[in-house]
Structures
1.
Amino acid sequence: MSEMVKVAVDAMGGDNAPSEIIKGALEAANENSCVKICLVGAEDIIKKELEKYNYKQEQVEIINATEVIETAEPPVMAIRKKKDSSIVKALQLVKSGECDAYVSAGSTGATLVGGQVIVGRLKGVERPPLAPLIPTEKGTALLIDCGANVDARPSHLVQFAKIGSVYMESIMKVKNPRVAIVNIGAEEDKGNALVKETFPLLKNCPDINFIGSIEARDIPAGYADVVVCEAFVGNVILKLYEGVGGTLIKKVKAGMMTSLRSKIGALLVKPALKETLKEFDLEQYGGAPLLGLKGLVVKTHGSSKAIEIKNSVLQCVTFKEQKINDKIKEKITLEDE
Amino acid sequence: MSEMVKVAVDAMGGDNAPSEIIKGALEAANENSCVKICLVGAEDIIKKELEKYNYKQEQVEIINATEVIETAEPPVMAIRKKKDSSIVKALQLVKSGECDAYVSAGSTGATLVGGQVIVGRLKGVERPPLAPLIPTEKGTALLIDCGANVDARPSHLVQFAKIGSVYMESIMKVKNPRVAIVNIGAEEDKGNALVKETFPLLKNCPDINFIGSIEARDIPAGYADVVVCEAFVGNVILKLYEGVGGTLIKKVKAGMMTSLRSKIGALLVKPALKETLKEFDLEQYGGAPLLGLKGLVVKTHGSSKAIEIKNSVLQCVTFKEQKINDKIKEKITLEDE
């Protein structure tokens, strides 16, 4: 039997907490017997929710937490003051080694700050990037960084490239993943100051497969496996992916409802379309890991439903099995020598 | 009769030059008798193309240019060396006042550099922004800046907000246009250094309708009419719009072809869908104006077809009629006092 993977799940975070969070966590436990879930939050509420489901007692534990950090709260202050919040307590379980990983759909800011302050960075990692998988025509790409480090420096971006390569190779099984830097043109002399400084550094990295610049247009087409950028740009990319996708699907649906003819067509097309569009749904891919910490911290959408929580928890299993943190440490240290 | 609007059209620029460029320019002339086209490029080639069409001789003129600036050429050098290129000669027609406007599907870099160096900035304008219209659920929004000024300063962004307001109010007839700055969160303290510095400046602008930050997700939903950002981010937004849109439409089409049932449905849905998706096609909106110059300079997609050239030329008519440059000068000068 494989080793157990213990995941601290913030039962109180996200728009659909606690019901969808608990549901998703239990689904993950039922699917994989190596998973142990620590549900962190108000004990009485969690207990009541748990009554609805069938699950193995030994796979689920409750850790009581009396406070909740709200999305709008300034994260640094919230982490410092709300010592008995579900986020702080769940992160402490990872810090102490009691849990391997953390999953939350709650405050992004608090997770990012708490991840660094409570769990702590791996030796050598300058700034841990938030790195979600995004859908492409050919499968998925890792967008790194997308929210952790605004106004990053070139050396940070180089680490993102290395960390992203480890992730895509070990978790997503992409051989020799293609690394590209987000730019506004394909030529080497294009870009802003940050990209121009970073480009030659990436070019001279012996241990990544750097293919040069990628224009935003080519990201959905799947031209790269690891898409490197600083957090502001990454955040814009992630959110615009959602925004354009959502608007376009709405337009497609509205378009189908404009005539009787098209309405009949829509009925026929619907099942096939649903299947294809699922591939392009960000929620299918679980949450975004905050990489480079002494433990795995995963942030899922605020609007996460059970499916995303389940996928995020299961992601943690692969993460541990593949010893991603050892590999990241190795790759980062290599650079320092 | 209205005043004539003379537009210098770069007949040699873009993937589909000269045929689609000339076709589109003539369509604009045929549609609006106030338009006069100066086709700039290799005279013999242009003459041959013109033979294919019906048009009024007095609405079309040829200006011979023996050189072409290629997309890959470093723009500053190209503008300096290729004095007899279609881009340089067309821009000079605007500079001399012989033409009111310039339209090119050729090198973006050369148009941006040439626009500033040859045509010149309006008094008070620090950096002329490139500002395309992008489709939203509710109509269109102006994305300003999207390619002219990487590493911009806060004062530039404030000017973009003012210039964009003039444009949306006068050309697109949006009353009291909502101005927002692209950010990675809705709260005032979110963002990178540039956005944090710019935010209070915009808040204190008395002559724009500043509504705060906009997350990339909300741009396609149409939450703002003037979307302010520095050029790197703007370029990413514009190109990702195209990229996600293209990929998703491909997925929808492929999804419809997966079964016999869905294929039949697709036939029924197609006409209605085509109409709706047209609204979301960037090419419907003509090119992107480079605003704040002593004349109108419009850059269209490299892949422009006749429809985009036509729309770009017709855009120039409204631009002149509405005396946009006088309005921009007025708004910018107001700030200096």
2.
Amino acid sequence: MSTFREQAQELVSKMTFGEKMEQMRYDAPAIPRLGVPAYNWWNECLHGVARSGAATVFPQAIAMAAAFDRPMLYETAQAISDEARAKYNEYKTFGDTQIYQGLTYWSPNINIFRDPRWGRGHETYGEDPYLTATMGTAFVKGLQGEDGTYRKLDATLKHYAVHSGPEALRHEFDAKADQKDLYETYLYAFRYCVEHADPSAVMGAYNRTNGEACCASPTLLQKILREEFGFQGYVVSDCGAICDINNHHKLTANEAESAALAVKSGCDLNCGSAYVWLKTAAAAGLIDEETITEAVVRLFTARFRLGMFAKDCPYDNLSYDVVECEKHTKLNRQMAADGMVLLKNTGILPLNPAAAVAVIGPNADDRLVLLGNYNGTPSRYTTFLKGIQDASEGKVYYARGCHITNQKVGNWAEHPLREAVLAARRSDVVVMCMGLNALIEGEEGDAYNGDRSGDKADLELPNSQRELYEAVIETGKPVIFVNVSGSAMNLCRQSEECAAVIQCFYPGAEGGNALGDILYGKVNPSGRLPVTFYRSHKDLPDFEDYSMENRTYRYFKGKPLYPFGYGLSYTNFQVKSLTAERTEEGLSVSAAVANEGSLDGKFTLPLYLTRKDREGRDPLRWLVGYDKAFIRAGETLTFRIAIEEDILAMTGEDGVRSVKPGEYEILAGGFEENCMGRVKIRL
Amino acid sequence: MSTFREQAQELVSKMTFGEKMEQMRYDAPAIPRLGVPAYNWWNECLHGVARSGAATVFPQAIAMAAAFDRPMLYETAQAISDEARAKYNEYKTFGDTQIYQGLTYWSPNINIFRDPRWGRGHETYGEDPYLTATMGTAFVKGLQGEDGTYRKLDATLKHYAVHSGPEALRHEFDAKADQKDLYETYLYAFRYCVEHADPSAVMGAYNRTNGEACCASPTLLQKILREEFGFQGYVVSDCGAICDINNHHKLTANEAESAALAVKSGCDLNCGSAYVWLKTAAAAGLIDEETITEAVVRLFTARFRLGMFAKDCPYDNLSYDVVECEKHTKLNRQMAADGMVLLKNTGILPLNPAAAVAVIGPNADDRLVLLGNYNGTPSRYTTFLKGIQDASEGKVYYARGCHITNQKVGNWAEHPLREAVLAARRSDVVVMCMGLNALIEGEEGDAYNGDRSGDKADLELPNSQRELYEAVIETGKPVIFVNVSGSAMNLCRQSEECAAVIQCFYPGAEGGNALGDILYGKVNPSGRLPVTFYRSHKDLPDFEDYSMENRTYRYFKGKPLYPFGYGLSYTNFQVKSLTAERTEEGLSVSAAVANEGSLDGKFTLPLYLTRKDREGRDPLRWLVGYDKAFIRAGETLTFRIAIEEDILAMTGEDGVRSVKPGEYEILAGGFEENCMGRVKIRL
């Protein structure tokens, strides 16, 4: 039996040069004489099958990262790929696929959330390379399946590489990253995922990196991705990115030149219209058939491997009834609760079920805020308000309180502030559901935050919400502040004035139920911040500066409000002992953790490494391992975490990674004042 | 003890001329030295307290009219006024009121829904003067309360008069209505409500009527409203309408002239900024203090009568806990179900609870479509999808199927049609939730239907929905078509091709539960159309033509698809006997109605009058009475309906109404082929 590549080679060999070039478009036409149906390569499943109707909408990627739970993310990706396959099985009965109906998914987004102002940061797994790498690996594996022969879906790592805003400039921007930052931060997760998860595809970014357009970069695509990392799959352009090369980056004179440059640099598939010009490029001698053939063979290898031309693909039997099934809904609720991060608690949580609650804020009863972006359409939603109504046994008052932003509010508009004050006055406790939504922080072209194309100007709540906050705080009622955002916000005042603070990101269709579970103690919070919560954007470098200096918990020299990895529980976990020993594969760490409180709960144990004699631009500390487990009240559990040799390494100015000999310390649970245990180790 | 008017006179006598003029603004300032707090007159409660946060959101007015149930509308208005007072009691603790926090409500809208293209038609009680008059009366009475001394709220009849589009022209339009149409159609409900419900206020319309600006019309406001109808309350302008008099109607040179003309014509209160110019007008001698004083006395009489300066107003004790209380929610669900109109049923309804159902359409899971316009904010919603999910015992598939309109959909947008086909294929029956929403048909400045300012161009579904409909019908699955709109649509194809057709208007926060109740037979449908469903807008006169010729069931000579008053039941009602006798007050009609089917249900009995020797432009038939009652299966109930003398009258070309002697027939249940019984009567 021939390999998928051989099958692809044979099929492609029957195509004309012109037919081959047409197959490199994301909207590939049918070739009826060869039995090739039309196929649209574009599909999305960042946190559930997206843009294809009903689907289980899991929490946004950043929220799933906050759960710090690889097995659960893997299980979630399995659920997503089950739904994706089930949908595909139905769609293909039409004889072709339209957009968002195929098996080739342009997820996950493993860019580093370098700066909290980036509008698309909530699509990522946060600011840490190792967390991103391991989350990305779990997600890709869950999508692509474990069948020995066929691939369940194609996962696509994006956006390769060094891509994190500004959104307004993305089509023309040149990101400057030196070799150290490149390998230590921006490429780490790409390399790790290629090595550990064998992703089918990689998507090139819109921007330039160090002068080369990412979708047509010999350095990024050939030298690094294929030669250094050993990537075996196909490369797809971001949508319209190849036309940007001439239109905005001004590196070529026209679309034909851009298309030829991209293909020759290793970009096999084009989302957009640039590759329509490949025929022109070929006629002008800018591209040869051999290069084209190799690209098309890669693409058809993928299609064969997905079982598109087979009769024995086991995934063809997945039934549509898996879509939004009870099992997925239950998993979704669990993921949503585990991705919420308790930042402060004076003891008011878990709430007394009989308490009268005022639920206040523009995000309290909004369905869209649950969904983030790149989302599907749940056929059942639970807003925060609904979740609280269902969980509470007391009276629940609701007041929107203000418009989410203070734009376009005339004299004759509703003025909802006083109602919020009234609701607060009548209640024992106030739950404020505030923050942003994916129309405020999001992608250029999508987000309504018009003047900044989806990015944030700062870390502040919109003025309308600050006014509401003041008025509610003035009532003197205890406030549980639920910050709903995909990015770090300035919560300094809340951290001082509120009885409790919860960061809940965009928690998916079950978000309200999950918040209810957390507030009333049905679930003990276990989420941890996947990003640093700074006190102000003024503590940060310029947004356009891609140097990692003074960015993220690894390099930030200031005092954040809440550090990366921070997150509280309703119970009292203690690290009772911590040992580390060198192994051939890296380090083996044992940590005995006791639940000394009175509630059961999951404990997330992050491990950080720090070097005694830190040099130059090396990180202050970095995540080298993490695990999570359920520990009953009164019980002690020993975590055994294997730290990979690779993550012990540091990156030189030349980009080369190596383990630098010296004295190190492993910090368990947190760093600085949040460290729960430490052990020295010599590497 | 002095009357409220005397108290007002005394208070006003202490005001300076300038202070008085300031009190005629809707945003009246405080006069601290007289103990008068600031008061904002503008509030709305068309179908629930609106624009003031959480409230029970009842079905839109047109849906409540479809219930043909005066006692239930009265009860609904009582619920609304309870919530309104409860909110006011809280708001006034701030020492003043902001917009939408006072007791003076600018509801109901009793304009005649003359043409289905009018975007605001769903705010009205439909196309019939008697139905509108009686519904308006029940609503006003329920709002204003029955306390012997104090008024619970002020109700405001609007928009006086001859106001029904086009929205785009409303600030400059001159509606032409001859005396017959004026009194027979446009003014009937205003007169009836003034005579029967003593409304506190009347709002002048934006447009001119027969050359005079409605808010400054001596004919409408002085001669007709006050002198002929005996109206005792105050008149308020529509918002910005007085500036229109110079800016758009060009009847005056500037705001000062407009303001003076309006006050002198009888408009006591100004929504907008025109009356800021009253001081200028007074200085120029355009208006005298006596006229101003009378207006302000009227306004303060109302404020005293509302108990704003009293300590013994019984409504001050209404607690906030009445807002969205269980009793109101239950009433809301009942009203919503009773306002849905079954237009066709092959027998598929009520649905088998075990059937697999595909719920398809852009209105299926939309919360906003429940609310219509001039709405409050429910703290609990049930979308149609949710209502079906909760009511069904079988599998429920959901597919949005299309965008509600086909605007702004690019190549890269989601293409949801195929999913709908898949859902239909997998189901036993399809429920399509289609139609419009209040962003498509609505008010100028509010509605997003930009090119027509909220009006409809025709009666057709948007193209996107027609395409979806075709695709779903092609699957061959039985379709229950739920048309969600505030106005008549062309449902010709649906009436032929679908297994059932339901018109459900904008049914309020409990709309989904109500639809579930109807679909699964928990509630037997009893609603009736308050408007004619034409086959095409081409059957109608020009939209700008205000002549009633060939408009509404009273004058329309064509063949409608579904006539005014039409509506089916799941059971089989028969009129077994019908008698009518002349009384001093009009007519007394007896109708024995048997429920010969196997299901209990409410029966709506409309009575129409038709004159044997109809003359000239007299109506073909007109509603003269109606009642509604619950009749158990197998039982017979006798309706006794008193027909008022007034509605027997016909209107001459001079506008004078009189009972024309001759032979008449009373038609029970419907007219033409829908007539269930008839009796001759000589008047």
3.
Amino acid sequence: MIYVIGIGPGSLEMMTAQAKQVITEVDTIVGYKTYIGLIKPLISQQVIIENGMRGETARCQEALKRSRAGEKVAVISSGDSGVYGMAGLIYELSDGKDEIEVIPGVTASIACAATLGAPLMHDFCHISLSDLLTPYDTIMKRIKHAAAGDFVICLYNPKSKGRPHHIENAIAIIREEQGSDLWVGLVKNAGRDHQSHHIFKIDAIDYSLIDMTSLVIIGNQSTQIIHEKMVTPRGYQL
Amino acid sequence: MIYVIGIGPGSLEMMTAQAKQVITEVDTIVGYKTYIGLIKPLISQQVIIENGMRGETARCQEALKRSRAGEKVAVISSGDSGVYGMAGLIYELSDGKDEIEVIPGVTASIACAATLGAPLMHDFCHISLSDLLTPYDTIMKRIKHAAAGDFVICLYNPKSKGRPHHIENAIAIIREEQGSDLWVGLVKNAGRDHQSHHIFKIDAIDYSLIDMTSLVIIGNQSTQIIHEKMVTPRGYQL
């Protein structure tokens, strides 16, 4: 049996009861080493299989092998395992006879939004700026449509060493579609130690603050700052 | 003090540890009566203030009043309180002196995706089809851009008595942009009693099954059915 588990953004507080219980009860936990570190307090007798980034396929194959041998296996992702996580890969690698259950978690955008205020009250989208698995042109086409549709936009994986300028290029496209009167929220280390956040006007973003631990939320035409919080009103009669 | 809490889709299992603990400890819980019903096992000494739909502003005002009088108040939303929930309204109604904390939850799309398989592995968006608070033309413009950008699309509030045909109109726009080779998932009562789900080709949707308890996820060009699950592969090398 394989449980594909979203552990939430980081703190055990933001994990669901179900995720917590299953992690405690399995024989084996498989995950990226940073995520294994986040769930340390839940580890006692379980076998731990951890490896580095880009080892996703090997990890999932090991999980399937152990599950077929009769072990209860937890494959963990940060946030939700179905959002840029391991759930899809497990299904792709399965032979159709494996028992698989996806256990939902709080994805990063939701945790970051709670920190910034309430920017996701209205229609929004998720776009990953990583071009490791998606062509750059596809990413930028999505940015353009999301801005033209006046969506609030959550940018996952906004920057890494290999692609330092994707974020500036994405923001330039949004700026062209939506103008300069837009608010942008940046959250670093959401739900983990050293969490911090910043809110900028789109032309005043400090790009040097954005790194691999960041998530960027770009507001839409309705997004406002209310008492220092970033809020996209839904339109209730006040 | 006001805690604006997402209780997750319904079952207590899918609530975060933090949400559960805060609900147990507050003086007063304010919410739509259906949601109060979902958290019954957590209620002991707390004062309960519940009302019906469209009573959102009155509920939030009562919560602020009690908080200002020194009570610890939990305002609850299903899913996440920052996604079509109460978080934005609380900030809008606040005078800036209220202590407000948003506690994240698992939003419906994430729970529905886990039931269907892994359809949200790649870029996706949320669109609500309710035109109570958003002009119909804005909604349909967003549908068109989301389809043109090849996003996976999660439709919240797909149908109610007052707007029986929005869902068919939205699907027609997506069909026109994206063609007929698209998979559509429907989940009813996600995370609650009587949960059920269906997967259709876009031209074979049974619209009679869609109701107020439903969430609809429309796949993109990459979405496949793998061993009866709806999966949008992210592109890892297998």
